[in-house]
Specification:
By secondary structure, the protein is of the alpha+beta class. The strands form two sheets. Strands 5-1-2-6-8-7 form a six-stranded mixed sheet. The chain has a two-stranded antiparallel sheet with strand order 3-4. The protein has one domain (about 5-95): uncharacterized conserved protein from methanopyrus kandleri fold like, CATH 3.30.1860. The protein has helices spanning about 40-45, 50-60, 70-75; strands at about 5-10, 15-20, 30, 35, 45-50, 60-65, 85-90, 90-95. The longest helix has 9 residues, at about 50-60. The chain is built from three helices and eight strands, in the order E-E-E-E-H-E-H-E-H-E-E.
Length: about 100
């Protein structure tokens, strides 16, 4: 299945959930216009299962997700579409905003 890091940040009425595949935490991804840092400060929350991460994402106002496991899981649950994904090198990244 796989583990991911989930960081939930609440501010006023909004909830931001940042999720990354566990092996990406602390890495800098190359291959885009600029390097993309999967920082511990932003993404480093609690180590969770994919199902726990998806549940946190369902409750969020905004989601930032990076990594093959979490992006594929979100596609599988129809939370995002493949056309909404950008790639940094070969690593997928997506954002979800619930209005």
């Amino acid at each position: 299945m796989g583990e991911v890091y989930v960081n939930t940040i609440r501010q006023n009425r909004d909830t931001l959930v940042a999720v990354c595949d566990a092996e990406l935490l602390g890495c800098t991804l190359e291959g885009g216009r600029v390097p993309f840092e999967v920082s511990e400060r932003f993404y480093g929350g609690s180590l969770s299962s994919l199902e726990e991460a998806l549940e946190a994402m369902r409750k969020a106002s905004i989601c930032n997700i990076v990594g093959k496991k979490i992006v594929e899981a979100a596609i599988g649950k129809k939370m995002i579409q493949k056309t909404a994904i950008i790639y940094i090198g070969d690593i997928p990244h997506a954002q979800i905003i619930h209005l």
